[in-house]
Design goal:
With 465 residues, the protein is α+β, with helices and mostly antiparallel strands. The chain has 14 helices and 23 strands. Bound molecules: '5'-O-(N-(L-prolyl)-sulfamoyl)adenosine. '5'-O-(N-(L-prolyl)-sulfamoyl)adenosine is lined by residues 109, 140, 142, 151-152, 155, 157, 159, 202, 283-286, 316-318, 320, 322-323.
């Protein structure tokens, strides 16, 4: 993309209404614009990051064997009366009426709708196990929408629902989700710690929240410092394997890590004092197992192997896709702006032309731009007629992890400069070498996708490429 043809309305001033750094930077970097309280337009740069995050979520869900679909945002009140949640949900639910005076609502979640679908089509245990998910906008009329996309009223969520024959199988689905979430967050450059939590209006006995540690987080958390040494890394997990998923769950949940809702001071104090941590965190996901409550109410039963009619065991699993954009910025920025992890960056590399209009420099930038695109990368070429200082400031603000600077002085020596946004370190090299180096840096991120195309072909993965 050429910056002169893009829409990147960066702000010089710090917007007064934004209280936390991610909100300020998203406004300053021209990523979002508030439409009304807690409701945002996603401007091109913000939209690109949102899509990158969504893409990773899809890839990891599909890798875990879960099946994508799409349900509507508007739901009928009647469905929620069957589950009893129409009245229980309270003022957080946005209720509306259509022209025939039928009561509708903008879905805050989809347990009822998906259970109704499964109840209508799934009749035998042979169709199980089944996990369906979608990525769809939700609405929760939060009392205090704040911090930009972190606590929105309209927000994008990945929500998945498992249907299983027994509690044991549903707990395998729970573990499988925990494992896939760990991998999902790590690909986004985040450490998200699973913590014992409270189930709230979703209900159920088993639930973990995933928290990214940050001073601006809305949740108070207590944990054993050892947990922050754990990483999921490059391990290959067979998601169908009960013992493998169980082992990962145990590894990541055996140390003390709880939100304030489930905090137990007695247990916490048994951890050696030097390892006890009290901090704040951003909740970027939550998983639940809640048994047969929704299935019984909405009629989701199947015939088991013995021919008996039994209710399905269910759980639901959510990732805050739009909240993640803010959470990643909270975890990765400096005084100059955002620093995108390679996994989610809106563009792979920025090209800064130090002397726009100089025929030699322009030609070198054009050639580099084409060479990067030919390697499957998306460069953002700052071809505006601006001072070098202004170009650097914009690049630092929008946070692309790599920048290639092209100027007449370097070109005389046959070099450009490759700079890391994170460390600030620069290295001179030929334009060809710079393009090759950037391609190499991103190779592991692209390999995630390449490795999946073959085995996942039968699950229509290609539609997400
Ligand atoms: C699980 C999926 C559920 O709704 N039903 C379907 C279950 N869980 S949850 O914890 O309530 O939400 C899942 C994730 O959505 C994000 N989230 C929000 N993001 C931005 N603004 C909000 N107001 C908001 N509310 C929830 C969180 O990341 C949460 O973990």
């Amino acid at each position: 993309m050429r910056l002169s043809r893009y829409f990147l309305p960066v702000l010089k001033e710090t917007p007064a209404e934004a209280q936390i750094v991610s909100h300020r930077l998203m406004l300053r970097a021209g990523m979002i614009r508030q439409a009304s309280a807690g409701i945002y337009s996603w401007l091109p740069l913000g939209f690109k990051v949102l899509r990158r995050i969504e893409q990773i979520v899809h890839e990891e869900q599909i890798r875990a064997g879960h099946v994508p679909m799409l349900m509507p945002t508007l739901q009928s009140a009647d469905l929620w009366r069957v589950s009893g949640r129409y009245d229980a949900y309270g003022p957080e639910m946005l209720r509306l009426k259509d022209r025939h005076d039928r009561e509708m609502l903008y879905g805050p979640t989809n347990e009822e709708m998906i259970t109704e679908i499964v109840a209508n089509y799934v009749t035998s245990y042979k169709a199980l196990p089944l996990t369906l998910y979608h990525v769809q906008w939700k609405f929760r009329d939060e009392v205090r929408p704040r911090f930009g996309v972190m606590r929105g009223r309209e927000f994008l969520m990945k929500d998945g629902y498992n249907f299983d024959l027994s509690k044991d199988m549903a707990l395998h689905a729970y573990n499988r989700h925990l494992v896939s979430y760990l991998r999902t967050y790590e690909r986004m450059g985040l450490q998200a710690i699973p913590m014992r939590a409270d189930s709230g209006p979703i209900g159920g006995d088993y639930t973990h929240e995933f928290l990214v540690l940050a001073d601006t987080g809305e949740s108070e958390v207590f944990y054993d410092a050892e947990i922050t040494d754990l990483t999921f890394g490059e391990r290959e997990i067979d998601y169908d394997s009960v013992p493998q998923c169980q082992a990962v769950l145990e590894e990541f949940t055996s140390r003390y890590a709880r939100t304030d809702e489930t905090h137990d001071a007695g247990l916490f104090n048994q951890i050696p004092e030097a390892r006890r941590r009290q901090a704040r965190g951003i909740e970027v996901g939550q998983i639940f197992y809640f048994g047969t409550e929704y299935s019984e109410k909405l009629g989701a039963f199947v015939q088991n192997e013995g021919g008996e009619r039994v209710p399905l065991h269910m759980g639901s699993h959510g990732i805050g896709v739009s909240r993640l954009v803010g959470a990643i910025i909270e975890a990765s920025h400096d005084e100059k702006g955002i620093i995108w992890p390679e996994g989610v960056t809106p563009f792979h590399v920025g090209i800064v032309n130090l002397r726009q209009g100089d025929s030699g420099t322009d030609a070198a930038c054009e050639a580099l731009y084409k060479a990067l695109k030919a390697k499957g990368l998306e460069p953002l070429y700052d071809d505006r007629d601006e001072r070098a200082g202004a170009k650097f400031a914009s690049m630092d603000l929008i946070g692309l992890p790599w920048r290639i600077t092209v100027g007449p002085r370097g070109l005389e020596k046959g070099v450009v400069e490759l700079t890391s946004r994170r460390t600030g370190d620069s290295e001179e090299m030929s334009a060809e070498d710079a393009a090759a180096r950037v391609a190499e840096i991103y190779a592991p991120h692209h390999a995630h996708v390449a490795a999946m195309v073959e085995p996942m072909a039968d699950r229509s993965f290609h539609t997400w490429l």
